[in-house]
């Protein structure tokens, strides 16, 4: 669990030669690990996107119902694909909003190639049920751990869903790493969905702004402490609906400017069908339920902004590039 400690001064002071050696070692590590880092799996983005590396905080900005959680799930899928066979690495997804059942169902729907909305209504024939059952076993073998609340167990135990702090999350990560399995597991990626739902500890500040700033700091601390990228979802305010271009900006994160300073990479998402007439034109593309606009707003040491039109199938959490208009 991460604890705030006063550092030994000698551990935070670096002479010029040591600093230079550390920089060269960093480049050497990147050179040797070329192709190992986690990418988005979307060609237009990956042309400019530097791979997600251990210790990085990747923030995803989006207004409500603009596919923020879906995009984070997609990035988690790419992290799972990057795990080598036989590895002890896992992806850990922490959710404050959805139940574990709802979260897992979105993954199973993708594995079974079925519509999640049909599954949620119980509209499953015998053939689809067999695919669903098989997909359940597929998920059972997937290195994905979910931290959150179970709707079923909450009802059975007559308990409200736990309102987790980030210190609770660190305790859960430690449990997954050292106690939950016969193997000693290591996080490949941690996904936090999402910032405004995170419960603050009493020491995290006296007002909402201070608490959100501290939550961003702790999210970055988790990335460094556990040696993996952390993906943090952030809700943006409804004032974005007044703009013609509704792709979030770096300063749109509610309650905190710390997002811009502490994040290594920042994505902004706009799902136009939620705010624009179907068939209207956005970025040279007609607005449909399958159009998503994603912008890489910031990345340290790399180019930004980079904006792409993407094909999205929310029912199965599928993303792909859209051909550029002629």
Count of helical segments?
Answer: 10
For the sheet with most strands, the description reads: 9 strands, mixed
The residue ranges in which pLDDT falls below 50 over 5 or more consecutive positions are none
Shape: globular
Q: What is the CATH first-level class name of the domain at 53-264?
A: Alpha Beta
Q: Termini distance?
A: 53 Å
| Percentage beta strand | 15-25%
Helicity level:
25-40%
Q: Give me the count of strands.
A: 11
Structural class: alpha/beta
Enter the CATH topology name of the domain at 53-264: Rossmann fold
What does this structure look like?
The protein is of the alpha/beta class. It has a domain at 53-264: 3-Layer(aba) Sandwich (Rossmann fold), CATH 3.40.50.300. Helices cover 34% and strands 19% of the residues. It is built from ten helices and eleven strands. It has helices at residues 16-32, 43-46, 68-81, 100-112, 116-120, 126-140, 151-157, 166-178, 208-226, 258-262; strands spanning 57-62, 89-95, 144-147, 186-193, 230-235, 265-270, 281-282, 285-286, 291-299, 306-313, 318-321. The strands form two sheets. It has a nine-stranded mixed sheet, with helices on both faces. A two-stranded antiparallel ribbon has the order 7-8. A hairpin with a 6-residue loop joins strand 9 and strand 10. The longest helix is centred in the middle third of the chain and has 19 residues, at 208-226. The termini are far apart.
């Amino acid at each position: 669990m991460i604890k705030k400690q006063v550092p030994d001064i000698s551990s935070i002071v670096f002479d010029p030669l040591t600093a230079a050696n550390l920089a060269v070692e960093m480049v050497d590590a990147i050179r040797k690990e070329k192709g190992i880092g986690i990418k988005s799996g979307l060609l237009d983005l990956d042309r400019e996107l530097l791979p997600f590396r251990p210790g990085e905080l990747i923030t995803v900005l989006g207004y409500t119902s603009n596919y923020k959680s879906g995009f984070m799930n997609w990035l988690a899928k790419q992290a799972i694909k990057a795990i080598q066979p036989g590895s002890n690495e896992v992806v850990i997804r922490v959710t404050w909003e959805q139940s574990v059942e709802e979260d897992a169902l979105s993954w199973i729907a993708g594995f079974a190639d079925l519509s999640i909305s049909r599954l949620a209504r119980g509209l499953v024939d015998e053939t689809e049920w067999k695919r669903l059952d098989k997909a359940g076993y597929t998920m059972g073998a997937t290195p994905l751990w979910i931290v959150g609340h179970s709707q079923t167990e909450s009802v059975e135990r007559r308990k409200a869903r736990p309102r987790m702090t980030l210190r609770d999350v660190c305790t859960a990560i430690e449990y997954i790493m050292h106690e939950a399995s016969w193997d000693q597991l290591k996080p490949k990626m941690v996904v936090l969905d999402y910032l405004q739902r995170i419960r603050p500890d009493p020491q995290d500040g006296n007002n909402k702004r201070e608490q959100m700033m501290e939550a961003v700091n702790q999210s970055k601390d988790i990335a460094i402490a556990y040696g993996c990228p952390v993906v943090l979802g952030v809700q943006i305010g409804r004032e974005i609906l007044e703009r013609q271009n509704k792709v979030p900006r770096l300063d749109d994160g509610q309650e905190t400017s710390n997002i811009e300073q502490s994040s290594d990479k920042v994505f902004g998402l706009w799902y136009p069908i939620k705010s624009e007439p179907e068939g209207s034109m956005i970025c040279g593309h007609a607005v449909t339920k399958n159009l998503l606009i994603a912008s890489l707003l910031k990345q340290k040491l790399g180019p930004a902004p980079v904006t792409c039109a993407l094909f999205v199938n929310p029912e199965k959490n599928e993303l792909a590039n859209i051909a550029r208009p002629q």
